[in-house]
Design goal:
heterodimer; A: 112 residues; mainly beta; 5-stranded antiparallel beta sheet; 11 strands; 54% strand; globular; B: 114 residues; 7-stranded mixed beta sheet; 4-stranded antiparallel beta sheet; 50% strand
Chain lengths: 112, 114
Amino acid sequence: GENVEQHPSTLSVQEGDSAVIKCTYSDSASNYFPWYKQELGKRPQLIIDIRSNVGEKKDQRIAVTLNKTAKHFSLHITETQPEDSAVYFCAASRTSYDKVIFGPGTSLSVIP
Amino acid sequence: EPEVTQTPSHQVTQMGQEVILRCVPISNHLYFYWYRQILGQKVEFLVSFYNNEISEKSEIFDDQFSVERPDGSNFTLKIRSTKLEDSAMYFCASSPGTGRVGYTFGSGTRLTVV
């Protein structure tokens, strides 16, 4: 069935360093790849997304890359800050309004 | 900024009881969803709803679950006979279904079955 894998499950970085989270997906019909940030007890919040017709997208300190051939996509956060500490979920979907299959999450800790 | 509103924020219920979780999606959105998240785990798809009917459901969404849009604004999830393993955070979400905008999630209802 449809599955999204995510690594690492936990990530600890020093403030100012970069953080990279990598995901793979199984459904070759996936064309929409959102990334969500979830703080403790809060809702998942969309931080960036990428569609299959694009290989890379950047928004300030956040960038996502997509390799559709390999079914890999990744999140890069540069110049990390303590407020970046949260659980990050990658996800895959056929469109922006189809069901979203979430990865298992990466708990990111940014140490001041 | 428009929000998806969920009530209650926390519901405690006895095993075997029926619960109804309520959501008010964003007013011009056409697609509605329920997801759940067991504590410490990933977010799991339950059901999607479009044009007044279920468009897709997961294997989690068995006969104990139902959804309804009773009026033009509310979207509800009913669990008929709750089990301990139904304890989770339930998130409602909505999407306009067009353009470049994805989901908006509500703040969730924490369901505790005792």
